Amino acid sequence: MTPEDLAVLHARCFTIPRPWSAAEFAGFLTDPLAFLLVEGDAGFLLGRAVAGEAELLTLAVAPEARRRGLGQRLVGRFLYQARLRGAASAFLEVAADNAPARALYERAGFATAGRRRGYYAGPDGALVDALVLRRELVPAAT
């Protein structure tokens, strides 16, 4: 998928947080620490791994392709890639009112680690909290 393709799909999936532009995607794709995972033209996940931590930057699945396991596959592939890149933990931010995404991440073993009050602004200016979710990728030392 090109940066333009990513931006179009992202805009179909998000109002909160705001959709990313093709230029923003292009910038991430030039970052050697970032990685893009795709499921055909129906979904993608952009992640980054640095200094023992992985961050799930964004995940988008086309509305007509949801409820088919694409998001779950992308998150599983993200966790695998994060481990390959030396990450011991992974984290992400999700809008507190995005119940489907929260359920997906909870099924993948993420748990709430914090809250950023009023982090996202909706198209109408309403503020929405972001939940910071975290998951350990390697067993803790005993």
Plain-language structure description:
This protein has 142 residues and is an alpha+beta fold. Helix content is 30%, strand content 36%. It has 4 helices and 6 strands. It has helices at 3-13, 22-29, 70-84, 99-107; strands spanning 34-39, 43-50, 53-61, 89-95, 111-121, 127-136. The protein has a 6-stranded mixed sheet with strand order 1-2-3-4-6-5.
Short description:
The protein is of the alpha+beta class and 142 residues long.
Q: Name the helicity range.
A: 25-40%
Q: Which structural class do the helices and strands define? A: alpha+beta
Number of strands: 6
Strand order, largest beta sheet: 1-2-3-4-6-5
Helix segment tally? 4
Uncertain segments: none
In terms of DSSP E residues, the strand content is: 35-45%
Question: Keywords, please?
Answer:
142 residues; alpha+beta; six-stranded mixed beta sheet; 6 strands; 30% helix; 36% strand; globular
What is the element layout, followed by pairings?
Elements: H1 3-13, H2 22-29, E1 34-39, E2 43-50, E3 53-61, H3 70-84, E4 89-95, H4 99-107, E5 111-121, E6 127-136
Parallel strand pairs: 3-4
Antiparallel strand pairs: 1-2, 2-3, 4-6, 5-6
Helix pairs in contact: 1-2
